Every structure is written in structure tokens, then in C-alpha cells.
Amino acid sequence: MGTHVIKMPDIGEGIAEVELSQWHVKVGDLVVEDQVLADVMTDKAMVDIPSPVHGKVIALGGQPGEVMAVGSVLISIEVEGAGNLKESAAPAAVKEAPVAPKVEAAVESKPAAAAAPRPAAVCQGPMVAREADERPLASPAVRKHALDLGIQLRLVRGSGPAGRVLHEDLEAYLAQGQSNASAPAAAAYAQRHDEEQIQVIGMRRKIAQRMQDATQRAAHFSYVEEIDVTAIEELRAHLNEKHGASRGKLTLLPFLVRALVVALRDFPQMNARYDDEAQVITRLGAVHVGVATQSDVGLMVPVVRHAEARSLWDSAAEISRLANAARNGKASRDELSGSTITLTSLGALGGIVSTPVLNLPEVAIVGVNKIVERPMVVKGQVVIRKMMNLSSSFDHRVVDGMDAALFIQAIRGLLEQPATLFVE
């Protein structure tokens, strides 16, 4: 038998150290080639570290949350063959994720290679006993799913690597256990004393640092404007009915991107980045719109590049493509960075007002709230209109309050008179 030592790989971009975010194996586990061993976190991305060999884990080189230098020992694996010590840097499989102030992103591990198929999720009994302070292995998406279902993860038997709890395990738990249906209804009102401590590491720590940095360095102020979107919604419905089958369905987002592009012609100070250390404001002609995208693993912000050169359907197709790539963890680093202004929306859950946090070094972020039907007075008559708020934030070091108000009112005018979006 021999020992294969895997060192922390050089991920590129001059990075000298990375944070060990999560182990997917433990000492004693048998691993196969290409199986994900660990996740590490750089300033810009979550990175999978796969195994280059088959073997048995005999030593781990660090703990989650530990910052490790490139070239340091990550893991030691016992392999078949000669007893000489082998060293390698495992190839890094990058899972891109933006680290913007508003981003909440974590990445699930890849499944094991085909040589070791994942076992079917079979719950061998309704629950498994764990210590009260033992935190079972599970991805953020599985934890959220369990929370939505009202399931305590420590009671669920995990069928994944190292006992990792999968979505299938939650379904098996519900099918076989379902909180002991025979238990008295009063159990639902029983006192609870359990606690869970969650270590702030990896992407969550980067987000926390960037959020704190953004709120400390920028002078945030927000401006809210009400918009009548009845006409633009009628136009959107008409275009979808006429061209949806051949060109694809349009959401409101491409219209909002178009409104940003047109409004920025008169307000170039909003499409800018501020280097507060060099005291330099860079105004950009290119409009690279960051579009917040919700996924099972958190909020990501892919970038629609050169929005100023795109038609409605081109923007719609690019937004859809980027959203799918982000949700599947396949977006590239370039697709998740380089925005000049950000558009953030919670869709139907958008509430009536929000206070988005700037994505430094940008100086403006436009927040979209939900559309609601309300009675409005139009030309002396009470009519039902579709109304929506824009809740936007700006960096007061660069943007004056009046300019911000006029910018959002310009967007309002374009959306309320949608023909003006296309008048050159």
C-alpha cells in the first residue's frame, strides 16, 4: 500500500490562500476517482476539490473555516501499489458564485463518479439517534427543505457519503416516520429546548464581510417611487400572445433592463463605479446589468453584458440562460462579475418596499417590488390599475438625492408610456 498526498491546488488569479469550507469525506471513508472531497472558498467562487485516485482517507489536513495556503497538505489517501509517498495537487472544479452584498450563495456537492453510484435513499427506520449537539451533514438546500417540512435533521438517517442527508432521505423519513402519526396531537405544542449553532464560514463569511464593508464604506440612501405598470403589462401580454411561440415569452425584466438602458443616457452618473481609495469615479458607456437570480442554494447575480445593444427578446434569452446557469452552478466567473448597475427583484414576493444594499463598487441598485391591483384616481375617475414600487438605493458620496429621484422618475415615465422605450 502507498500514500497519496493531495495538496491544496493553485486555483489561479494569484490566490495564495483559500478557506476550507466543508469536508465531504471523513477519515476511514473509501473514495473513488473524481469524487468530491471538499469545498474551498476563494474571494469569488466556491471550488470543488475532487479526488484524483481511488483509495481510503487516512488523514485530513484542516478543519472547516480554516484558511489554508496553496500547496499545503489537504488530504492523505491510502492507495494500492508501492509504498512510496506520492503528492499531487487535485484539479479544482470551480463552482462560480458572486460575492455581492446582497448575495446569499452556497453550493451543493457534486455526486460521486459513476464508478461508485449513490445508493438509493432508503430510510432504515423512521429516525436515527444523534446527539443533541451533533450537526448532520446536509447541503443548504436540504436544510431549507427540512425546515419547510418541519423536520429535525438530526432525526433523519442520511444515505449520502459520510451519512450526508439528501432530499430523498427527507421523503423517506416522511413516508416511514411522519412524526409518529399515532402520537397525540398535543405533541405539536410540546416545549422545545433544542439549539443549533451554525459556524459562519465559506460563502456565508464572505457575504457577511462584503455586506459589512458595503454598509460601512458607502453612504446608502434609498428612494421609493410608485409606478403604474398597467400599460406595460398589456404590451407584454400582447407581445407574448403574438410572438411567444416563436420568440419566447417575455417577463417584465427585459422591459426593466431596457428602461435602465434608456434612462442611463441622461443619467450616466448612475452607471458608474467608485474607487474610494483612489478617489476616482469611472463612468461606463457599456451597461452591464446584474440581475439577481433566486436558486435553491441562494441568491446569485449573473450579469447581462452590453444590455445597451440588446433587443427585448435578446435580453430575455440572455436573462433566462444566465439564470439557468446560476441555478445549476454552471455560470462562469465572467458571467457573475463585472456589473455596472444591479437590478434586484423578489418577484411576486417582493413586498411593497425594500432597501437593497449596494453592490460595491457600483453606485446604484434598482429594486423591484411586487405588482398589485389597486383603485387609483385617473382623470377624476376611480379605476383599477396595476401598480408597482421601485425601491432603489444609491451611494450618496457619488449620487445626489435629486439626481436619484429624477433617474427613477425617468424610468417611471418610460414604463408608464412603453412606446418611449423604443423611440430613438
Automatic annotation (TrEMBL):
Single annotated GO MF: acetyltransferase activity
Origin, by domain of life?
Answer: Bacteria
Domain named Peripheral subunit-binding (PSBD) is located at: 137-174
Quaternary form? Forms a 24-polypeptide structural core with octahedral symmetry.
Stated name of the protein: Dihydrolipoamide acetyltransferase component of pyruvate dehydrogenase complex
Keyword GTP-binding in the entry? The reply is no
Query: What InterPro entries has UniProt attached to this entry?
Result: 2-oxoacid_DH_actylTfrase, 2-oxoacid_DH_E2_comp, Biotin_lipoyl, CAT-like_dom_sf, E3-bd_dom_sf, PSBD, Single_hybrid_motif
What SUPFAM superfamilies does its record include?
CoA-dependent acyltransferases, Peripheral subunit-binding domain of 2-oxo acid dehydrogenase complex, Single hybrid motif
Tell me its EC number(s), please.
Answer: 2.3.1.-
The GO cellular component terms are: cytoplasm
What residue stretches are annotated with the Lipoyl-binding domain?
Answer: 3-78
Reported cofactor(s): (R)-lipoate
**Gene3D superfamilies on file:** 2.40.50.100, Chloramphenicol acetyltransferase-like domain, E3-binding domain
CDD domains, A to Z: lipoyl_domain
Q: Extract the Pfam families matched here.
A: 2-oxoacid_dh, Biotin_lipoyl, E3_binding
Q: Which UniProt keywords apply?
A: Acyltransferase, Lipoyl, Transferase
